[in-house]
Amino acid sequence: MFESAELGHKIDKATYDLEVPKLREALLEAQIDLAKLAKFPVIILVGGLDGAGRGETVNLLNEWMDPRFIQTHGMGEPSDEELDRPMMWRFWRELPPKGKIGVFLGSWYTWPILNRVTGQTKAADLDQSMERAKRLEKMLTDEGALILKFWMHLSKDRQEKRLKLLEKNPKTRWRVTDRDWKHFKLYDKFRIVHEGVIRHTSTAEAPWTIVEGYDPRYRSLTIGKVILDAIRRRLNDVDNKMVDDIAPPPLPSIDQLNVLKTLDLKQKITKKTFTAELEKYQGKLALLTREAKFKDITVIALFEGNDAAGKGGAIRRITSALDARYYTIIPVAAPTEEERAQPYLWRFWRHIPRRGRVMIFDRSWYGRVLVERVEGFCSKTDWMRAYSEINDFEAQLVRHNIVVVKFWLTISKDEQLERFNAREKIGFKRFKITEDDWRNRDKWDDYEHAVCEMVDRTSTEIAPWTLVEANDKNFARIKILKTLCKQIEAAMKNQ
Amino acid sequence: MFESAELGHKIDKATYDLEVPKLREALLEAQIDLAKLAKFPVIILVGGLDGAGRGETVNLLNEWMDPRFIQTHGMGEPSDEELDRPMMWRFWRELPPKGKIGVFLGSWYTWPILNRVTGQTKAADLDQSMERAKRLEKMLTDEGALILKFWMHLSKDRQEKRLKLLEKNPKTRWRVTDRDWKHFKLYDKFRIVHEGVIRHTSTAEAPWTIVEGYDPRYRSLTIGKVILDAIRRRLNDVDNKMVDDIAPPPLPSIDQLNVLKTLDLKQKITKKTFTAELEKYQGKLALLTREAKFKDITVIALFEGNDAAGKGGAIRRITSALDARYYTIIPVAAPTEEERAQPYLWRFWRHIPRRGRVMIFDRSWYGRVLVERVEGFCSKTDWMRAYSEINDFEAQLVRHNIVVVKFWLTISKDEQLERFNAREKIGFKRFKITEDDWRNRDKWDDYEHAVCEMVDRTSTEIAPWTLVEANDKNFARIKILKTLCKQIEAAMKNQ
């Protein structure tokens, strides 16, 4: 695998001096076109051995290119706020928007590799991390991102030579740390792990480019040209996005039965039961969220449902039991300009809270497979792949001790009509009914179909959907509070 | 001062039940109008005594209003990332955008008061904090924000009663902590400090509203009505923004002399000197930024200058001495949608780095008093007040061990013309010349005037401007590197 990168590639100064001005000009032009088009971001990962010139190359790239459209991120030790959130959050917060280039020195590969070589994790852990990396990259490229992964390699001899060379020069001495020499002693171990990682994660969407790092001129010119070529090819090809519907078709609805139709919407509770149960479960929720153990978990509750199904009312029954300092409601509306310049899930990642918080999403990332699907706001491929992206996303949350509680509130078509009419009569509820609501109502069956498929594809053991019969508001509210308490309790027991 | 809030205000249930539906409806309508207009944000601060119902009131507000347009922030202990930046950063990151309401439970008043009462700071420190708070609020209201500050007060008797009442009820017992009782013992001290703070910071732009917190119905209705009334008045008055040019007029230019004209643009260095000095100062910068002490400071260097004055080249001479992981270049371009919905300085606050970083702004917050002033992109009042806002902003940075280094690069009008022409000939520099550049050139004198006034008003002892004679690029680069090293060195000595 590293054969070509241990040959001692070199470029003489004359050739280099001849090539660089042309390359710089072409890179700048490509950057300008990229920024003007603003249709996809470029994500460059730079990994590899110590002393193989990762930092220098990145500095040079910054020097060659227009700094307005390129940004470098050193992914060193994570901060406390970063440790307090799922591992990938720190990358999401630094993703370049469409039209720009983001260079990552250190990436989602760095820590898994290091932890494996130093024996802190097992081979299976590394495999899992690599699977996650692949899924992330798949999602990013599906969203249009161009991902370029560079691996700076050196043979063992040459790594030693490079480190010694850097140490001898007073101007570069600081670059060589004790850690570098410690890692050098582990060269063979690193090499094996590196090889496995590269083999495992060189995908069609985001292959690795291995570059010999010994000769600065060679490595800089090589990387510059690969970047230029990739951006250019992508710019020419930008409208040629492959659309292949590889997802399996939904089950045909032969007997007209579906998960929503099996719900008994007639379920009711009396006013008296409601008052008693409300007090009970709000009190329970209040106490649970004030336990010391709660500081170690996070709750993300999301609400989806038919229009007028009573999401707002249910949310208020939850929040009135909580301390206003520790909960946030995120009403999900149309994405902003900065959000539109990012992958779909970015606008949810940015809201992921620290530990000890309750975050409530009033509508959520499921909009992709509900309203966006039904109204045709995104392509079929986009919502098709959303199922597995969402499952991935939620798995990352759960792995980080986040309790993900998902509610779908169902009402019957008749009940909805009654509520729409009632709302139009009550002054301060009038604003809740818009023309969109009436239009959505016309597509009742399409939405029902989308909901059933969503439940089938995303109700997982770690983050199950709770379907709530909401024709009786009070019944729904109690079911929701009860479910929430139960899931929080279970999570705290597992701590 | 607290007399009216110790009378034992109460409202009976019948009146309350009659008033609330009307108030809710009106609040919702005001919220919708606020969101539709999207011209100003509403910032609500809720402070006051423990047990005076701060949290409950905020919960109720959230219940009454539309959660899509209101967001509550509990300002408890700051996070590590927050501690790593100037104190106000945590508020800037949570400011509501135009059209929305942000409620802060705990504010820029909380910690200064607490630190004073517990004797950790002196009276003078508190005074300084209050001055800062006033300036922040002035800036926010100048930017259009509506600020409502509520102070929940209780007499000593009633605070004790309230705490006991809350403790007796199993459902609210968790609300009363040891800290609350500890604070209760300090009631008299708190009262004196509170009174001083309120007196000091009740300004015309952002006055305090003191509310007796004993009776939940009274305090909720009062606060709800004050909010409603303030939003309504502001909505009616939104286009009536007072424009009064209170800033002193610039000095008349009688002898045609100004700070820029005193610069000797003929200064030059030889290629040989340049090479030697470049090596010397880049090496010095490289070593300085790798010292252990550097981890305790942050460097913010900003570059302004005539078009084609060589900002980019100078920046590259700096960055090539730095580790790409620890520096960031922020090219300042037109603000995004999310940035336009915030006060002017928000888009710079959001980039403030953690310690141990070098942040380079290619153009900066001075755009307000340069291009925006000259091109008429903002009103005269807006750029007039920008001088003191900027001085304030930089003072906050410096107070937090941030080294603020400001460069103005000057070239002569002739030199600029030569460079423009040269750039149009070199392929990969062609993109650097736009029609804007030629247009700006026509306004040379206006820009010169704006620059001189900027220097006069914002070159402070803590953050001085360095005027750089840039007709000779190499001379400029060395002067910049030298200045930067000197300022970093000085800051590290003061550590």
Automatic annotation (TrEMBL), chains A, B:
PANTHER family: POLYPHOSPHATE:AMP PHOSPHOTRANSFERASE, POLYPHOSPHATE:AMP PHOSPHOTRANSFERASE-RELATED. GO terms for biological process: polyphosphate metabolic process. This is Polyphosphate:AMP phosphotransferase. One of its GO terms (molecular function) is polyphosphate:AMP phosphotransferase activity. Residues 11-234, 269-494 form the Polyphosphate kinase-2-related domain. Coiled coil: none annotated. The gene is pap. InterPro entries: P-loop_NTPase, PolyP_AMP_Tfrase, PPK2-related. Gene3D superfamilies: P-loop containing nucleotide triphosphate hydrolases (3.40.50.300). It comes from Candidatus Methylobacter titanis.
